[in-house]
Design goal:
rod-shaped; membrane; transmembrane; single chain
Amino acid sequence: LLNGVFDPPPHNLTVPWTYLGTLGAAIIASIAASVEIITRLARRTPLATLREL
């Protein structure tokens, strides 16, 4: 079915370092943003939260 697809076979594996680095940076940035938002929401007093409702 896949005859000729890997002719000749690759000499070594290719790792997409740019993609993996960008993905890791995006994950770290989203975690940092989530922590910041949760921290700000946790610092608010319950009374101020109830007034907004």
